[in-house]
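Section 4.2 – Deliverable D4.2 (structural model, holo form)

The reporting period included a commitment to supply a predicted holo structure for the target in complex with PRP. Inputs used:
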Amino acid sequence: MRTLISRRRIATRIRTLARDIEHDYKGRRIHLIGVLKGACIFLSDLVRELDGPVSIDFMAVASYGKGKESSGQVRLLKDLDSSIEGRDIILVEDILDTGLTLDYLCRVLRQRRPNTLKIAVLLDKPSRRQVEGIQADYVGFEIPNEFVVGYGLDFGDMYRNLRDVCVLSAPVEH
Ligand code: PRP
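Output (structure tokens):
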């Protein structure tokens, strides 16, 4: 296990992202949608850095199997609690990898006629992209193609509690 992005760098970057978002929305109410489970920690820290009117909701999707590789399938496991029609939405993800998950979610959410829909991701792995045209409006860190865990990201549902984003080089089965 090797630290790729320290908790300190994460905290600093999230403060900057929050200032960027506040600047772009200029006091308008923002509705953050977190994608469970990975985004819960990033969303928790981001929302507490945002001043002004903010509400939150969550969706859950399944895109990966238990291992490292994407199945390429995206299933909606939990839908939103409330309508997003006419609202300013920021979809919050821990990582943008192949883009399959965000492509699916954006298509679903756009059909519901939000006023605006933007994407915030903590990590972006552009070298892994399979879906053209998917990009985040707010990116914490661009990272190389390494398998990362921690700060919400898992391997076999473990390691989400690590405070740093770490590279898992010799994964242990649980
Ligand atoms: C991860 C991550 C994103 C998705 C990104 O979720 O949280 O939702 O994969 O990958 P993609 O760009 O290749 O679609 P995962 O399925 O591991 O579930 P989790 O959030 O519950 O950990």
